[in-house]
Every structure is written in structure tokens, then in C-alpha cells.
Write a structure and sequence with these properties.
Chain A: It holds the Pfam family ArsA_ATPase. The complex is a heterodimer of chains A (about 375) and B (about 300). Chain A is built from 15 helices and 8 strands. Chain A has about 375 residues and is of the alpha/beta class. Chain A has a single domain, classed as P-loop containing nucleotide triphosphate hydrolases (Rossmann fold). An 8-stranded mixed β-sheet of chain A has the order 3-4-2-5-1-6-7-8, sandwiched between helices. An 8-stranded mixed β-sheet of chain B has the order 3-4-2-5-1-6-7-8, sandwiched between helices. The chains are: A alpha/beta (about 375), B alpha/beta (about 300). The structure holds adenosine-5'-triphosphate (ATP) (2 copies) and magnesium ion (2 copies).
């Protein structure tokens, strides 16, 4: 049986079985709410069912899914999801593990690791600027996600790690975040600001003292002493961070690291994919393709009258057939929209392979749900 | 207090729930009532293209009769504030540099406070002769988490600052956002589990802050035309699981899609009921139907019609 997204119309061109055959890292990027976490878990389950030892690093999973996977209250620690063989003849199953990322605690761990002394670490952890920074500042979650990825890979416990990512307006934000963060921590301008006396290039000289005084008065916060402390410690770690950023970059460029983009059937989402592809072409990144999730299915080429007639014959209930045909017509409008959008995407020159995943009848919030999703992610195996 | 009779509306919600579309539709609605409206957006710039206008950036720009747009840049907002405090020339010398911009990036809540101060300025009843006055400022705010941080920022900042003009202003801003006669929040939601959970949590968090929740918009709802038994009868025409494409007769092929749509609609009904039950009495809730295509300028009139009753 084929599980292509639409009974007629566009069909999938991306085969995950061959694409992810020997992947060690799979990164799923994409906009908010498109299904990154669900898809990461679904692919993870599919790979585990193929005998591989899999770990899925999730970020903010939906509550019911987190609970069903046994993640409630467990942040930062891998949890194994018990898997029964899917078929009675029982293929050998691998392992499925999931971790829920907690950006703040990963940061705290990094600070402890890189600080010169426990006292120095403690000072940073209490620092006002650090608290702001480690909480919500753009880029920190992305940075900690790749940090965690590193840690999981280094343990050698898994054959493949799937990396779910925080929602980004632009999928590239994710790739650039560690670099930007490192650049920020390493900023020469800040070093100069914070060490006005050291002269160095003499860019600021005495002006800096005046400047900092004014700043303090304008802001009403002695932010500078907090900043100085923050950068004093983090600046010292900057070498460590720099090494990490380079290691991460190398990891992202490895042939066994594969990127997938998840999108919704919306023009903005597909435009994002096109932009992602365009930028990746200049980089050493292995972008395997686009998962278009939650596609509406319908019979595209039959109008309401034909559907009503067919249902009337099958059901012998004219009233019901009429309403059901009306409902189908509504779904068809949406399905045609989705289909046209993807057809246009596939017609564009140099497009990537696409995997079409239909809207399922139920939300995906447990292992049976993920198994249903897996049938569409790995259709050949069905 | 009628929603559009306030001076400042903040439209927020999870990513992709329709904040931009709904902020724009409310703007069209208010303009239709003769109000001069400014729609400000904070995270990026999408509104200008929706209104078929070239990008406006951090400049108040008239794009249609009675409708202006501004895409607020938080760093620029901070400069606006400082400029208003020390005057243009002094400001240029002291704050117009990279060092200051870097400091801004690391300062807890500072950008947010300055952004909220922009809203305050824009929504003043009298902005003097140099600046246009608006009857209503609608903010297409960032997604919930960031928007809440923004609303909290005046109090947060006021708590850590020991003095200075920003602290003084922050106290004013706290009063502005907590005044239901002037400020209201519009929360956008989708009829799905996680978005509904988040909406209910945000509604409570707003209460905690003393900020008035003026309207909840449940966006992209669908309905069914069938009873549950009827839908299952149709689903039974298809041999396999409803999720799978079937071959065969037309009746067999439409059965899956019809049942999937019906179940989805029913699940959404349940989420809508859960949302209605979870909101405090008195909080207005309205639904916007899902449309086949993306929202364009032409659709805003219809969206405005659909919102008119709830906004009255
Ligand atoms: N193919 C599908 N069919 C039906 N429901 C789906 C499908 N894919 C995802 N969902 C549902 O959509 C919701 C959002 O999915 P998910 O949490 O994976 O998105 P996300 O991209 O990770 O979101 P965020 O950007 O908020 O992290 C979930 O409730 C999930 O069950
Ligand atoms: N009622 C609706 N029916 C169909 N499509 C809609 C509806 N409302 C919004 N949309 C579409 O959904 C997409 C997201 O809407 P919009 O941009 O308004 O959301 P947003 O919350 O501002 O998103 P973001 O978080 O990315 O800023 C857009 O393509 C928009 O045209
Ligand atoms: Mg997610
Ligand atoms: Mg928006």
C-alpha cells in the first residue's frame, strides 16, 4: 500500500530509509508549530524499529507527548522509551531514548565546567546579566542544543542522535546562533568598553570613563559592574566557547550529519525552505530535503456532484451523501491549495526532495500515534 | 470598555496563530469606524507587505487612509527614549555608538522597556505638533513568551534600577499597561491542544500582572456537517486505516478524507469548549473560520466583519 500524501496529485520524492541509512546526526529545523518535535520523535521511532540505538533531543515537546514518553519532570537526562515489537513476528528493535533540553541548566553546567573556580562560577550564576542572558536571549537555546548534542554523541551510547530545534522564523538562525553567540562573547568592542584603562588601541581613552558614568546615570542601573563581572568570567571562557563553536561547525559539516527541514503547507513556510536551501548551497552542510507536514488529503479531481452521486450509491442515503459531499468539497478546497503549493515548489528549478506527510486523524501524542506517523515517514516499509 | 475605544491593544499568541492577520484586521475595522490607527509590529516586518506597501522600518508611515504602520526596532526605540531625555545633539555624541548598542543587548529588560515606551508615546492623546496623533495603537506583538516579558519589563526594570529617567518612566509604563481603560490584550489561539493550554496559561499570567484581556480570538476553526455516527458510517466504506490513501471507487476514496476532517473538526470543537470553560467569565471569545488561502489585503475586510461584534 502506498501512503503518499494525496490519493492523486503530488507525491513524495524523499526516501528517509536511504537518506538516513548511516546518519549519525539528524537535525530538524523549521518554523514554529509545524511539527519538528513530532517528526523528530517519529523518525527516531522509525530508526529504532530498524534496529538502531536512537536518541531524540527534544525542545519543549507538547505536554501530552512528553508525558507519554516518560519525560515529565525529567530535564536534561535521557529516558528510554519502552518499545514492543511492532509486528507479531517481532523484528529486532533497537532503542529509543528521548531527552528534554533545559537550556538554563545546560548553561549553568557549562559555566561550572569552564569557570576557573567554584567561587567564580557561583558569581556568574548569580549575575543579573547572566540570568537574563541564559534565560531567553536569542541564540542561547540553539547554542545549548548543540552543546547537548555533543555530549550525547561523545557518550557513544547511540548510533544516531536526532536534534529537534527551537522554532525560528528563519531556519538559518539556528545554524548561525552558536557563531553569533561566540562573536558576542568575544566582542572586542566590549572588551574595550570594559577595560577602558588598559588603553590598548586607545580607542576610548578617557572618554570611556565619561561614557560609562553617563550610561550609569541614564540607565539607573550599575549595569556595567554586572557586565564587567559577566564578561570577566565568560571572557575567560571564551577560548573554550570558541573551540566548541568550531567543533560544532565541524560536526555540522560531517557527511554523516544530515539536515531536514520541516514545513507546513503554507507559502511562508515553503519560502523559508527555499531561502534555507539557497544559503546552504554555499556551506558545507548536507541538506537532505523537506518534510511537508500535515497536508490535507482529498480526492482532488472529482467535484461535489460526482462525490454526492458515488456516496448516494454506496450509502443509499441522499441526505447524508449530500452533507458528506459538502464536507469533502471543503476539504478538497484545502487539499487543492496544498497540492498547488507543493506542485509549484517542485516545479522550481533545483528544488530539494520532498516528503509529504498527511494530516492524521488524531493528534500524535503517544507511541502508537508516532507509529502511525512513522508509516508515512517511511512509507516503503508499510 | 469596548475593545477599540482603548488607546493601546497588544495582539499576541503562539507563533503562527494569526497575530499579524488579526492585528491588521482590527486596524481595518477601527479605521472603518473613522479612527486614526497605527499598527506597530515588533518582531520583524510583515505588515507592510500585507498592506502592499514598501517596507517602512522604524518610521511611522501612512499606508492607507487612516492607517499607519511602524516596524519598531528595539535598539532604535532605546535611542528614541534617550533622545527625548537629553536632546538630539547630546544624544548623538554620547549614545550613537556601537558600545552603547552592545550594552543594550546585554541589559536585562532594557530593550523591552524602551519598546513599551514607544507604545506609550505613540498612544498619547496629544503628541504635540511634530508628530501625528492616533486614536488607537495596535501592536502586532511577538509570540507569547516574549510579549509577556515585554509587559513585565517595566516592573522588572523598576525593581533593579536605583534611579534615573528610565526608572521613572518605567513606573508610568506599569500604570499604562495595567489600566483597562487604556490598554487591552488580544490573545490569538488555534483550536489545538498545546495552543489552548498556552492561551489559558497566558490568560492567568495576564491576570497576575493586572493587564486586561480584552479578547481571545480562536483562529482557523472548521466545522463538520456530519454527526459522529454518520461520519463513522462513511469511514467504514474505506477498507484500511482512515489515515491511508485507498484505491478503488470514488466513495471509497473520499471516505478517509471525510472522516479525518470530521474527527479533526470534532477535536477542535472540544478544544474550543475547553478554552471557553477555562477563561474567566467576562472574557470575550470569538472564532474566525479557517480559509483555504492565506490572508491578503482583500480578506482583511471580511476578517474585520467577523471580528466586529466581539470588538464592539
Ligand atoms: N502529521 C500530523 N498529523 C496530525 N497532527 C500532527 C501531525 N504532526 C504534528 N501534529 C500535531 O501538531 C502539534 C504540533 O506539533 P509539534 O509540537 O511537533 O510542532 P513543533 O514544530 O515542534 O512546534 P514548536 O515550534 O512549538 O516546537 C502537536 O499537537 C502534534 O500532535
Ligand atoms: N483564518 C485563517 N484562515 C486561513 N489562513 C489564515 C487565517 N489566519 C491566518 N492565516 C494564515 O496563517 C499564516 C500565519 O498567520 P499570521 O502571519 O497572521 O500569524 P502570526 O501569529 O502573526 O505568525 P508569526 O508568529 O509567524 O508572526 C499566514 O499565512 C496567514 O495568512
Ligand atoms: Mg517543538
Ligand atoms: Mg506575525
Amino acid at each position: 500500500m502506498s501512503a503518499g500524501a494525496a490519493p492523486d496529485g503530488v507525491t513524495s520524492t524523499l526516501d528517509l530509509d536511504s537518506t538516513l541509512g548511516d546518519a549519525r546526526v539528524v537535525v530538524l529545523a523549521g518554523g514554529g508549530g509545524v511539527g519538528k518535535t513530532t517528526t523528530a520523535a517519529g523518525i527516531g521511532l522509525g530508526l529504532a524499529r530498524r534496529g538502531r540505538r536512537v536518541c531524540v533531543l527534544t525542545i519543549d515537546p507538547a505536554r501530552r507527548l512528553a508525558d507519554a514518553l516518560g519525560l515529565q519532570g525529567v530535564a536534561d537526562e535521557p529516558v528510554q522509551v519502552p518499545l514492543e515489537p511492532s509486528a507479531p513476528d517481532g523484528d529486532t528493535v533497537g532503542e529509543l531514548w528521548v531527552v528534554m533540553l533545559d537550556a538554563k541548566s545546560t548553561w549553568d553546567g557549562l559555566i561550572r565546567q569552564y569557570a576557573d573556580s567554584p567561587e567564580a562560577a557561583e558569581k556568574v550564576l548569580q549575575n543579573r546579566v547572566y540570568k537574563e542572558f541564559s534565560g531567553a536571549v536569542a541564540g542561547t537555546q540553539e547554542y545549548t542544543a548543540v552543546e547537548k548534542l555533543h555530549e550525547l554523541l561523545a557518550s557513544g551510547r547511540w548510533d544516531v542522535v536526532l536534534l529537534d530545534t527551537p522554532p525560528t522564523r528563519n531556519a538559518l538562525d539556528f545554524l548561525d546562533a552558536p557563531q553569533r553567540l561566540h562573536a558576542f562573547l568575544d566582542s572586542r568592542a566590549l572588551q574595550l568598553l570594559l577595560k577602558p584603562a588598559s588603553g590598548g588601541l586607545g580607542l576610548l581613552g578617557r572618554g570611556a570613563g565619561v561614557f560609562t558614568g553617563l550610561l550609569k546615570r541614564a540607565l539607573g542601573v550599575d549595569l556595567l559592574s554586572d557586565l564587567m563581572e559577566f564578561f570577566g568570567v565568560l571572557g575567560g571562557m571564551s577560548q573554550g566557547f570558541g573551540q566548541r563553536a568550531r567543533a560544532v561547525q565541524a560536526l555540522m559539516a560531517e557527511p554523516r550529519t544530515v539536515f531536514l527541514l520541516v514545513a507546513a503547507p503554507h507559502p511562508e513556510s515553503l519560502e523559508e525552505a527555499a531561502a534555507f536551501r539557497a544559503t546552504l548551497s554555499g556551506r558545507d552542510i548536507h541538506y537532505a530535503g523537506l518534510v511537508v507536514n500535515r497536508l490535507t488529503r482529498a480526492v482532488l479531481h472529482e467535484d461535489e456532484a460526482a462525490v454526492r452521486g458515488a456516496l448516494e450509491d454506496a450509502l443509499d442515503d441522499a441526505d447524508l451523501a449530500g452533507r458528506a459531499a459538502g464536507l469533502h468539497e471543503r476539504v478538497r478546497g484545502q487539499a487543492r491549495h496544498d497540492d498547488a503549493l507543493i506542485a509549484a515548489h517542485l516545479a522550481a528549478p533545483g528544488h530539494e526532495p520532498v516528503l509529504l506527510v498527511p494530516q492524521l486523524a488524531e493528534d500524535v501524542h503517544d507511541v502508537p500515534g508516532l507509529d502511525r506517523l512513522t508509516e508515512h515517514l517511511f512509507p516503503a516499509a508499510g | 470598555m469596548a475593545l477599540l475605544d482603548r488607546r493601546l491593544l497588544l495582539v499576541t499568541g503562539k507563533g503562527g496563530t494569526g497575530k499579524t492577520s488579526i492585528a491588521a484586521a482590527l486596524g481595518v475595522l477601527a479605521a472603518r469606524q473613522g479612527k486614526r490607527v497605527l499598527i506597530a509590529e515588533v518582531a520583524g516586518e510583515r505588515l507592510s507587505s500585507l498592506f502592499r506597501h514598501r517596507p517602512v522600518g522604524h518610521h511611522e508611515t501612512v499606508v492607507e487612509e487612516r492607517i499607519s504602520l511602524q516596524a519598531i526596532d528595539p535598539i532604535e526605540a532605546a535611542h528614541d527614549f534617550l533622545r527625548s531625555q537629553v536632546g538630539g545633539p547630546v544624544h548623538r555624541v554620547i549614545f550613537q555608538n556601537r558600545l552603547f548598542n552592545l550594552t543594550m543587548t546585554a541589559a536585562p529588560g532594557l530593550r523591552e522597556v524602551c519598546t513599551v515606551d514607544r507604545f506609550r508615546d505613540l498612544s498619547q492623546e496629544d503628541r504635540g505638533r511634530k508628530h501625528p496623533t492616533y486614536d488607537l495603537v495596535i501592536v502586532d506583538a511577538p509570540a507569547t513568551g516574549h510579549a509577556m516579558a515585554m509587559l513585565r519589563s517595566p516592573a522588572t526594570y523598576s525593581g533593579i534600577a536605583r534611579g534615573g529617567p528610565i526608572k521613572k518612566r518605567a513606573d508610568e509604563l506599569s500604570a499604562l499597561v495595567a489600566d483597562p481603560a487604556r490598554t487591552g490584550v488580544v490573545l490569538c489561539a488555534l483550536p489545538e491542544e498545546t495552543p489552548v493550554n498556552e492561551t489559558l496559561e497566558t490568560a492567568e499570567a495576564l491576570r497576575g500582572l493586572g493587564v486586561d484581556l480584552g479578547l481571545v480570538v480562536l483562529n482557523r476553526t472548521r466545522g463538520t456537517l456530519l454527526g459522529d455516527d454518520e461520519a463513522e458510517r462513511i469511514g467504514a466504506l474505506a477498507p484500511g486505516a482512515v489515515d491511508e490513501a485507498s484505491d478503488g471507487d470514488l466513495a471509497v476514496r473520499v471516505a478517509g478524507p471525510v472522516l479525518v476532517e470530521h474527527r479533526r473538526a470534532r477535536r477542535e470543537d472540544a478544544q474550543r469548549e475547553r478554552l471557553a470553560a477555562g477563561l474567566r467569565p467576562g472574557v470575550a471569545l470569538t472564532a474566525l473560520e479557517r480559509r483555504d488561502d492565506e490572508v491578503t489585503r482583500e480578506d482583511l475586510g471580511e476578517l474585520a466583519d467577523a471580528l466586529a461584534e466581539a470588538a464592539a
